[in-house]
TrEMBL record:
Gene3D superfamilies: 1.50.10.10, Glycoside hydrolase, family 65, N-terminal domain, Maltose phosphorylase, domain 3. This is Trehalose and maltose hydrolases (Possible phosphorylases). Keywords: Glycosyltransferase, Hydrolase, Transferase. It holds the Pfam family Glyco_hydro_65C. One of its GO terms (molecular function) is hydrolase activity, hydrolyzing O-glycosyl compounds. It comes from Caldanaerobacter subterraneus subsp. tengcongensis (strain DSM 15242 / JCM 11007 / NBRC 100824 / MB4). InterPro entries: 6-hairpin_glycosidase_sf, 6hp_glycosidase-like_sf, Gal_mutarotase_sf_dom, GH65_N, Glyco_hydro_65_C, Glyco_hydro_65_M, Glyco_hydro_65_N, Malt_Pase/Glycosyl_Hdrlase. The active site is at residue 498. Residues 335-697 form the Glycoside hydrolase family 65 central catalytic domain. Residues 18-279 form the Glycoside hydrolase family 65 N-terminal domain. Residues 707-766 form the Glycoside hydrolase family 65 C-terminal domain.
Amino acid sequence: MVKKTKKPIYPFEDWTIRETEFSIETNYRNETIFAQANGYMGMRGNFEEGYSGPDGTSLKGTYINGFYEIHDIIYPEGGYGFAKTGQTMLNVADSKIIELYVGEEKFDLLKGKIHFYERVLDMKKGCVERKIKWESPSGKIVNVKIKRIVSLQRQHLAVISFSVEPINFTGNIKFVSAIDGDVRNITESEDVRVGSNLKGRVLETVERGANDFEGWISQKTQKSNLSYTCAMKNELIGTEKYEVLNNVKEDRVEVAVAFKAEKNRVYILNKFISYYTSKDCDKSETMKLALEEVRRAQEDGFCKIEKEQEEFLQSFWEDADVVIEGDKALQQGIRFNMFHLLQSVGRDGKTNIAAKGLTGEGYEGHYFWDSDIYILPFFLYTKPEIAKALIMYRYNLLDAARNRAKELGHKGALYPWRTIDGPECSAYFPAGTAQYHINADIVYALKRYVEATNDLDFLYDYGCEIVFETARFWEDLGAYIPLKGNKFCINTVTGPDEYTALVDNNAYTNYMAKMNLEYAYDIANKMKKEVPEKYQKVASKLNLKDEEIASWKRAADNMYLPYSEELDIIPQDDSFLYKERITVDEIPEDQFPLLLHWHYLNIYRYQICKQPDVLLLMFLQREKFTIEQLKKNFDYYEPITTHDSSLSPAIFSILANEIGYTDKAYKYFMMTARMDLDDYNDNVKDGIHAAAMAGSWSAVVNGFGGMRVYTDELHFTPRLPEGWKMLSFNVKYKGRKINVKLTHEESVFTLLEGEPIEIFYFDRRVLIKSGENILKGYEEK
Ligand code: BGC
């Protein structure tokens, strides 16, 4: 079933998202849409001047990627090996605050009268600008313009430029620029997609101060032993005559600037903000570094930072932009998605990309397999250095993964289903730890990275350890089962579909584990031959023996790969086909998402899926299956897939495209491309859906662009939708940058960087030489 598409919320514009009126009803949602981040920190689109709307219509949020508090996970009935300690990304001090007083009256959109309101996110400039013409209750009119930038170039920096112009009066104006440390996370225990279980205030203020135009506040967590400083520096432009007053409270520091403003003159308060945490430097240094950062920024000036931001984005779009001519809604949707992915991704090898980016508190700021399977490809083929950082993050977690495997009585390493810093944080093991496939997902991402970049140094110096330790884990987890013909079976696992849990021989898991084991075997042999010293080093570190490596091959060769002869499909697992089948059409619409309306036992009892499992496997290992197999499996699984996970529609779109289900391909793509912009699931207020956003890129490039990457080969079988005039995107692959431009008449592959390279166009091998290569159907011109 394909659900209906939603009505668009914002006008269709190529590079901008525009909100043309302010309303309490949409405020919460728009705080996510206009959230800004730079991979290190994120700020929701909260108003600088404050918001006096009713409870539940706003979430004040500022987040630092990977900065968290720990808490005990309380189980009424615990069990051995259950995850004990949760981690929650913290809402940190709010530094966005700039209150404006016109005489005695406070600028507040819920008071007085709004003559004009507009907020625009400009994705080329990386800036959100709000313009308001406001009349105070007593009749004073001001033009207000506020620009905010969270700097992509200087990741510890954000800047706000707040300008005011009296329109019908001359009189006193005051700005109060503040950092407020009295912050907490939202508490939500019923729906994990909303918030965390962390109760009350967590951060304790240990230092605060203000001096002239500067202010700072340092806070520490109670249990995770982390601390940070937030510093600000303000400057006033427009008059030399002003008064500065500092106000330092327990958890709040304020810099107030008062002056007499003349009618029709513009006055600007620029605010430079910085955050440094004890994860970035010694904890005694955070204040010094944060203050240095804001001072430097102020010296450089707002304009320079604005320009840098635009330059950064220019380079990003040069690599990553996708152009769709003929559908403005999709053009906007896909750019919005890519922009948010860039905003959300940790680029330092120590952080990753949270399920909701840095825009909200849903899923507690945790990183999932979303990063490795859904998000990584976007960066891999556009900004491979970011993909490398994401895998480096996984490498840095290896010790924690080793400990977890040990705790569960296994050899090797078991990566956490969800975490920030390494330990397993999933409190519900059937849809957490049991998703062992995370191990193979990480290896799959690494393998793709190595294939696409030839970065063998990374593989030999770091990646191989991940591959060996996970292979070791699989070999230990599975067993040769006599009644299954002595095949290597992996029992009691959960595959990607979370509506089926704790099953034997989940097809996805077995195929992916096989890939993991084979890759480990191949790399070990390759290293022995090509880099014997490096091999020796890692072998002695891991105590690797030849017999063990041979055992990986044996397990891979004998892996049990489920297949149903009766139905000629791949069963999701051993028991799936023996359950009652219920199609999505048979379930009343108000029951979705099922996870909020049915007990898991009922969900597990049916053949009903949250998201693709077998079909995802077929996409990831596409070369292993024929198109007929793909179609049969698609026809079988589509009617029973609810798409209750936002990760779902993109994969359906890609595969529908290949099978020739053009309408479905398009509808599924619409569900994913504008999922957050159209608030498809009515929950964008809780944060973006990062994996779905990346899925929409894949749906364009792998779906309509028909790109497949088989081992060491790039294939294209484009299928341009009828309504599109042109689709263009770039692919970085093995040191090349290729622009692919597709129209209904021809396909043009332009080699922008690197040496000529052979690709497959439809099934034909073609050499892409420098400059433009024009291909028509099967024919080269
Ligand atoms: C999905 C998972 C996903 C998680 C975080 C869940 O709803 O079923 O596959 O990892 O959301 O995005």
